[in-house]
C-alpha cells in the first residue's frame, strides 16, 4: 500500500533522507525506530505530502505522491496522520474535532458524520466525553480524540509520529492500547515510536533509521531481540 523507492530529501544542503527504500503492505504494522534527528518525522511527512522530497518515488495505493499535484488531497484522505502533539482545535469539542474532516474535506452530511464520530469516540474509550474540549481532557484522552479523528476519514493507513512521546508515563498505556486494538482490527499502520515493547508485540516489521539511512529492517522480534547491526544494538541498549 505504501512504497518508498530510493527516497531522498535535503533541507538546503543538508541531506536528511539518503535513499530510503521500504514498504508497508495492507494490514501490516511497521514501526520506525531511531535516534532523534535521524529523519523519522521527515519520512512520515513525505509519505502524506506534508513535505516534498527531492528524489526517488513514494507511492500510496500505486499512485505517486506529489505534493505539487492536486491528487495530494486524495493521498491525505487515504493516509491519515497522528502527531506527537495531538493538534486538536482547542475551542472545539471532541466530537467537533472528529467530524471536521468528514464534513469539510469529504462532504459528508453532518448528522451521519456525528453519528459515526460518536461511535469512533466510543471505540477509543471516550463515550460520554463528546462535548469536552481539549483543555478539559488529559493528554491521553486528547491523543485518543486525535486517533478517532484520523479514523473518521476512513483512511487506508494511519501514520503515527511518536504518538505517546508527549504524554505523562501513566497515560501512555491507554493510547498504546487503542493502537494495539486498531492493529488487531487489521489497520495498516506506520508508527514512529520509542516504545520498544509495543513494537516487539504489535509490529510485523521494524525499520531502524539512523542518519537518514535504514541501517536495518526485518521482522520485529528479530530486529529488536537479535539486531544484526552494531548501531541498532547500541541504540536499543540506550532506549531499553
Ligand atoms: P526525527 O523525527 O528522527 O527526530 P526529523 O525528521 O525531525 O528527525 O529531522 C531530521 C533532520 O532534519 C534533523 O537534523 C532536523 O534538524 C532536520 N530538519 C527537520 N525539519 C527541518 C526543517 N523544516 N528545516 C530544516 N531542517 C529540518
Ligand atoms: Mg520526529
Automatic annotation (TrEMBL):
Occurrences of domain ABC transporter (ranges): 2-236
PROSITE patterns in UniProt: ABC_TRANSPORTER_1, ABC_TRANSPORTER_2
GO cellular component: plasma membrane
Membrane topology qualifier: Peripheral membrane protein
InterPro entries (UniProt xref): AAA+_ATPase, ABC_ATPase_HisP-typ, ABC_transporter-like_ATP-bd, ABC_transporter-like_CS, MetN_ABC_transporter-like, P-loop_NTPase
Coiled-coil ranges (or none): none
Alphabetical list of SUPFAM superfamilies matching this protein: P-loop containing nucleoside triphosphate hydrolases
Compartment(s): Cell membrane
Keywords annotated in UniProt: ATP-binding, Cell membrane, Membrane, Nucleotide-binding, Transport
GO MF entries: ABC-type amino acid transporter activity; ATP binding; ATP hydrolysis activity
Source organism superkingdom: Bacteria
PANTHER family: AMINO ACID IMPORT ATP-BINDING PROTEIN (PTHR43166), L-CYSTINE IMPORT ATP-BINDING PROTEIN TCYN (PTHR43166:SF35)
Family: Belongs to the ABC transporter superfamily.
Protein name (record): Amino acid ABC transporter ATP-binding protein
Organism: Methylobacterium oryzihabitans
